Amino acid sequence: MSDYNFAYLDEQTKRMIRRAILKALAVPGYQVPFASREMPMPYGWGTGGVQVSAACLVPEDRLKVIDQGADDTTNAVSIRRFFERTAGVATTGRTAEATLIQTRHRIPEEPLTRDQILVYQVPIPEPLRFLEPRETETRKMHSLEEYGLVHVKLYEDIARHGQIATSYAYPVKVEGRYVMDPSPIPKFDNPKLESAAVQLFGAGREQRIYALPPHCKVVSLDFEDHPFEATKADHACDLCGSGTSYLDEVIVDDAGGRMFVCSDTDYCEGRRDAGHRGRLAAINQEDAA
Amino acid sequence: MTPLLQVNGLTKRYGARIGCADVSFDLCPGEVMGIVGESGSGKSTLLNCLAGHLEADSGAVVFNTRADGPRDVRLMAEPERRMLARTDWAFVHQNPRDGLRMGVSAGGNVGERLMAVGARHYGGIRGQALDWLDRVEIAADRIDDRPTAFSGGMQQRLQIARNLVTGPRLVFMDEPTGGLDVSVQARLLDLLRGLVREMGLSAVIVTHDLAVVRLLAHRLMVMKSGHVVEAGLTDQVLDDPQHGYTQLLVSSVLQA
């Protein structure tokens, strides 16, 4: 074990963050200010998520960290190692085994359960930020429930592109009250925001925490004649053959060759272990052999 | 007839200085009130106090609301006042850049107020936007252009369309023709006069251009150093000015 306090932050700091989390859970979608600390990583690398995770972790927890759906990318690996060192908690890549999942830009494909906590890393918590630059004004708009401006953004999308082109960080209305930025998850994941798990959102630089309690009503904003659609690439996964998971497009050569693979690596591996095969799975195995 | 707007003893001070002092008037439905005066006479302060952009120090601004009859706007809760400001009221700024969203297309600008009061049908919003662009003489194929691509006169007309789309009953205008060249001014005034008649709008127009009030306003208030020095029917005040300052003002205009 190290010389750090459990999970890096001191107990008073964790207490302060927990209070913010409780308040956020009590008012779903409301951005609670908190005294964000400097973390030993740059802003934009998940300082908010890490603080929320640190405040929620207990020694019995099993931690999973996802970055864009993958468990093995730099951000995920470094945060997982950070908590292995400072908290000594067990870690896993398996969604079902994890009790606390910190994520960046994705929600796992596998439905979460009531025993799990999902922590999001949020770069910009304010859904109205690019519509109204004044912080005083956006706060007033939230408090008075003046959300017409969000639809102006969607209107502009349709006017310019013929459809709602916002594909990530798609604004949602929580419990018919607060408009919330679900962090930059693809809009494909928006329906999954209504979940059995507790979902916490931490923005370190912007010093805000917000939350969705289990089974909270989350509606993606849209127009009557242009309803919300959870879109994904129109393909099946080339490794596991899944036709329902969110896909990454990977360029494989200089001749325009490409493949589509599940963005959720754990989900994809699970399916392959269960014997599912996609279009290119056999070729890849030959390559490996 | 119940006046649409009753103003009683409205006073705004900036510390020891007077913004506007003890202003009272009634505005009937369909009536256009002009406020003239030199720079610094408190015209804009008065207008901003009326529209709720500035907090007045004392006095009452009673608006005849659709739902509950006459209510003092200054005693309303903020959500109510802001709701009023985007449904029954409109505010046309002197500089269209203050009143428009420059990063949003013309259609989005016109549609914003509709969406703010709950319109959620894209086709419907766009239809109304097209209708209003036509009424302010902006070509339909400019609907997806941003205001930055518009001329000053077009921007001002777009601002008017954006304000009138929810069918307000009271319009505040702060020098709507300022900064436009005379031929564009004439067209804009023509348009405004038509819209005011057609929609039965009441309006409070602040300007330092006497020609504008002569064309648009039924009644006129002349302000100097924060006080109303003369008020009456427009023609009466302009043709037979009583107060020394009004006489000076009227005689300063070059007769073309």
**Largest sheet of chain B, described in full?**
6 strands, mixed
| Quaternary status | heterodimer
Shape of chain B: globular
Mean residue pLDDT of chain A: 93
Intertermini distance of chain B = 40 Å
For the termini of chain A, the CA-CA separation is 40 Å
Describe it.
The complex is a heterodimer of chains A (289) and B (256). Chain A is α/β, with parallel strands linked by helices and 289 residues long. Helix content of chain A is 27%, strand content 17%. Chain A has helices at 11-26, 47-56, 74-86, 135-143, 148-161, 265-273, 281-288, and strands spanning 32-33, 62-67, 90-91, 100-104, 117-121, 172-174, 178-180, 198-203, 208-212, 218-220, 247-251, 258-262. Chain A has a 7-stranded mixed β-sheet with strand order 1-9-8-5-4-2-3. A 3-stranded antiparallel β-sheet of chain A has the order 7-6-10, with no helix packed on it. In chain A, a hairpin with a 6-residue loop joins strand 11 and strand 12. Chain A starts with 10 loop residues before the first helix and ends with a helix. Chain B starts with a strand and ends with a helix. In chain B, the strands form 2 sheets. Chain B has a 6-stranded mixed β-sheet with strand order 6-7-8-3-9-10, sandwiched between helices. In chain B, strands 2-1-4-5 form a 4-stranded antiparallel β-sheet, with helices on one face. Chain B has helices at 43-50, 78-87, 96-99, 106-116, 122-135, 152-164, 182-199, 210-216, 234-239, 244-252; strands at 5-14, 17-27, 32-37, 58-65, 69-72, 89-92, 170-174, 202-206, 219-224, 227-233. Chain B has 2 domains: 1-88 and 168-256, Rossmann fold (3-Layer(aba) Sandwich); 100-167. In chain B, strand 7, helix 7 (182-199) and strand 8 (202-206) form a beta-alpha-beta unit. Chain B is globular. The longest helix of chain B has 18 residues, at 182-199. Chain B is an alpha/beta fold and 256 residues long. The A-B interface holds A 144-146, 148-149, 151-152, 155-156, 158-160, 222-226 and B 78-79, 82, 101, 104-105, 107-108, 111-113, 115-118, 120-123, 125-126, 143-144.
